Amino acid sequence: MTNRTRSATLLGAACLVAVAGCGSDPKPKVLPSLSSTPSTTATSTTSPGSVEAEVEAAVRHYFDVAQKAANTGNTTELESLSTPTCGCRQLVQSIKKTYAHGRSLGVQFLVHSTQVHDVRNRTAGAIVEFSVSAYRDVDESGRVVQTYEPVIGRDDMSWVSSQGRWLLTNEVRLEGPGT
């Protein structure tokens, strides 16, 4: 896996973290321009207060926090939203590595839709369609060291309810880089 794809996947997890194209079409997709304020509109037919609504809210919150971490380098809250064994923690490591010698500029995440499925006891899955804007990493002097293309992704994210909140336990890329 290349650094570009690894970063996009992480971004994508959102996010922050991973990049490339989507689906079986090898050509990059053109993303709609994103506003400076992330929009996390999720489409669904769930009722407020339902488990499905809680999971959708957890998804939106995760992507908001991932964007904040990608833009500030502070990963504390992002780490708290997943279990220690989640592969999504690679995003945290990627952000830490970037901010050890520079920063990321222009990272924006947009959740297009969330479809909650397989709700059982304290677990649920969510198919999340999202995009990550083009962005760049710069070093301490502001020199661009890496640029990333926009990403459109579709992930199946696994969640568990623990102590009154939903934690991300795993994510699988359904479409996007490397699929």
Please summarize what this structure is.
This protein is 28% helix and 35% strand. The chain is α+β, with helices and mostly antiparallel strands and 179 residues long. It has a single domain, classed as Nuclear Transport Factor 2, Chain: A.
Task: Provide structural commentary.
This protein is of the alpha+beta class and 179 residues long. The chain has one domain: Nuclear Transport Factor 2, Chain: A (Roll). Helices cover 28% and strands 35% of the residues. The protein has helices spanning 3-14, 51-72, 76-80, 89-100, and strands at 15-18, 102-105, 109-120, 123-132, 135-139, 144-148, 151-162, 165-175. Strands 3-4-7-8 form a four-stranded antiparallel sheet. Helix 1 crosses helix 2 and helix 1 crosses helix 4. It is elongated, with a radius of gyration of 15 Å.
Radius of gyration: 15 Å
How would a crystallographer describe the biggest sheet?
A: 4 strands, antiparallel
Number of helices, counting only DSSP H or I runs of 4 residues or more: 4
Mean pLDDT: 79
* Total separate domains: 1
Taking pLDDT < 50 over at least 5 consecutive residues as the criterion, the unreliable ranges are 1-46
* Helix content, binned percent: 25-40%
Strand content: 35-45%
CATH domain class name: Alpha Beta
Give the second-level CATH assignment, the architecture: Roll
Number of strands: 8
**CATH domain fold name:** Nuclear Transport Factor 2, Chain: A
Euclidean distance between termini CA atoms: 12 Å
Instruction: Report the order of strands and helices.
Output: HEHHHEEEEEEE
Q: What is the topology, as strand order, of the major beta sheet?
A: 3-4-7-8
The shape is elongated
- Which structural class matches the secondary elements? alpha+beta
